[in-house]
Structures are given as C-alpha cells and as structure tokens.
Write a structure and sequence with these properties.
The chain is mainly α and about 260 residues long. The protein has helices at about 5-40, 40-55, 55-75, 85-105, 110-130, 140-155, 160-170, 175-200, 205-230, 235-255.
Amino acid sequence: MEGGLPLSRWAACFYSCILMYIVLIIVGLIAGTLSGSIGFGGGMILLPVITYFYGVEIAVPVSTIAQMMSNLSRAAMGWKEIKWKQVLWFLIPALPFTALGACGFSLVNKTLMTRLLCIFLIVFSIMKMGNKIHLPKGHKTVIGGGMLTGLLNGMLGISGPISSAVFLTLDLSPVSYIASEATAAAAMHIVKAITYGKFNLMNEHIFLNGLLIGCAMMAGNWIAFRLIRNVNKKPYQRVVGIMMIAVSIWLFLTV
C-alpha cells in the first residue's frame, strides 16, 4: 500500500485492536459480576487492565464512565430497597470531596497512593473479620466515610471498599446494601465525570470506551443480582471481607 501502512501491518493493528476490546469486554463482565455481588472491586479489577492498554491518565476517566453505568444499573435493579436517608447523609460530604479529588487528579502519584490504599484495606479487612475493629453506627461514620470516599474516588478512581465498609455498618440486607452503595457511587461518578470534562480530561474516545465496558459491567450486574437476592447476611459479610483482601492484593501487584 502506497502512502499508508502495508496491508500486513494494517491487519496486525486491526487484530490487536479487536483483541484489546474483547479483553476489555470480558474484564468488564467479570468486574460487573464482582461489584454487583459484593458492592466493590469493579474499579480495582478494571483499572490495571485499562492502564495496560491506555496508561493511567486515560484509564481513570474511562473507568469512571464504565463504573457510573454499572452503579446506575445496580441502583435501578435494587431501587425499592435503597435506604435514601443514609445515602443522602453519605453524599452531603462525598460530592464536594469527589470534585476536590478530581481537581487534584493530575497532581498525585497514583501508583504510590493506590498501593497505600491497598495496604490500608488489607489491614482493615483482617481486623474487621477478626472483630478487632468496629465502626460505630450512625451519622458520624457515614459522613466521615463520605468525605474519605469522595476524595479517593476523585483522585484515584478507586473508593468502593471504603464506601462498602461504611454501608456494611448499617446492617442491611445484601440487595439493600448493594443498591444503596451503588446509588451513592453513581452520584460521585457523575460529579467526577463532569469535573474531568471541565479540565479537558474527558473526550469522545474516552467516553465511548467507558460506554462499551460499562455495558459489559451491566450484564455482570444482572448475573450478580440473581445470585445474592436470597443470601444470608452474616456469611455474606465475611465473603465481602475476604474478597476485599483478595482484590486489594491484586491491585497492589498490578497497578
């Protein structure tokens, strides 16, 4: 081919592109099933994979769009069981702190911050399962958790385990917990996407990639909701703790 890529190179590029999107869709489906089952982990699974293909500066906005869609679908599936009062208390500090974190997105060392977060989550989960730590129930925990969740969400695109730990203190049924946490997360992702757009960190390419992965995550959410509807609360919460440790180790090693 004159004036362009040789046919063999064009075919290789096309094959690589198709393979990349197949991988992203499969990972999106897995991430959606995981986050739909335990309330978090989708972003922690997605981020290393998207970063591998695009780099972290693009991976975080792409993951934001995908997770926004995923969380909106989980909220819709469990709409009747959302605890709106607790969600509101959580979002009052979470939304402004999400915008603040998104403003500082380009300034922080994301690898270092992410690994520190993973270490914290592993220690927290081990202590929680061993009954060494008890988050107090009430507005103070929800408000404080909203502040921390929003800040980390805006900066790193990862906050699900923090918000999940907060909503687990409310002793909700699995579906109510998943739907309530997803409602709060969806609102934060919307604020984050708007803020990224204001700083020219969002474009059509990023949006379309996030849309594609988000559709795969929504399919995973549907699978997850079929699995958790009749699960007992206490064993479920222990599974959540184990998965928090496993996903944190995965992210620490791959970020």
